[in-house]
Amino acid sequence: xxxxxxxxxxxxxxxxxxxxxxxxxxxxxxxxxxxxxxxxxxxxxxxxxxxxxxxxxxxxxxxxxxxxxxxxxxxxxxxxxxxxxxxxxxxxxxxxxxxxxxxxxxxxxxxxxxxxxxxxxxxxxxxxxxxxxx
Length: 134
Known about the structure:
The protein is mostly helical and 134 residues long. Helices cover 91% and strands 0% of the residues. The radius of gyration is 21 Å and the shape is elongated.
């Protein structure tokens, strides 16, 4: 397989959009944590504390998703530099590493979504318990 200077550049738009989506998720979680912290301070509700713990895990995942995504973009730039210098074989390996980093970032994104669904399930279960008690 022949790799050219434009091959790693094709990933730039995809990685940029992923990083933007990850940043948006991070900002939404940060706002949610702030509001839940204020609610917990007034109610001391165990469900709210559980959600805050859940959000802590999700924040760590998002941080790692961002780190792997940025590393993937860095690898693409490095690959382009290596290819520009004329080292096609080394460029292939660096590009392959960039793809693996991107796959790792996407795998963490999938895990974060699964945890998010679990948090929503907690909310729904709590709602069901409240309606059954009435």
